[in-house]
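DM from R.C. (forwarded with permission)

"hey, sorry to bug you on a friday — could you get me a structure for this? deadline for the figure draft is monday and I only need the backbone to look sensible"
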Amino acid sequence: MTVRRGDLYELLGLTPRASRDEIAAAFRSHAKRLHPDRNPGDLHAAEQFKELTLAYQTLIRPDSREAYDERHHQPGRSAPPAPSAPVATSAHDPIFRTPRRARAAMVSGVVCFALGVTAAVLLAVVNTGGTAETVTLWIAAIKLLVCGPVLVGAGAYRLHRLATGQ
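My reply, with the result:
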C-alpha cells in the first residue's frame, strides 16, 4: 500500500478545528464517491480511498488525532516533518489503556491457564503417539500455563495503576 502522508485534514476537506461529526461526515461523503466497489479497476480511486481511510482512522480517534496534531499542526510550524523521519512512540504507552481491556486480559489469562491445566492432565493420561508429537503438545501446554498467569498479572497491575491514577 503506497499511502501518501499529506495533510489529513486537507485530504478530507476540513480544518484542524473540525469536530468528530464533521470528520465522519466528510469521510462518508468522499468514501461514497471513491469506494472501490463504485470504481472497479480504477487504481487511482482505490489509492485515494486508502488515503481517505487512513485520514479518517487517524483523525476520528482522539489519541491518534492528538499525536498527529502535535507532529503536523503545531503553531509556527510551516510544513510537516520529512516522511523519512521516524515517528517516536512513548516508552510509557500502556498495553491495556482502559480498565475493560485490563479485565479482558485477566479473563484471557485465566482461560489460558485453565486450558494449560486441562492439556497437561490430558497429556499425562492419554497416549499421544510419537515422542515428537508429545514434546510439541507439552510445549504448547507449558506455554499456556506460563502465559496465563502473566496475562492475569499484567492486567491486575494495569487495573491497579488505573485505579491509583498512575
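R.C.: lifesaver. Residues 20 and 62 are 9 Å apart (CA to CA).
me: no worries. Residues 131-164 form the longest helix (34 residues).
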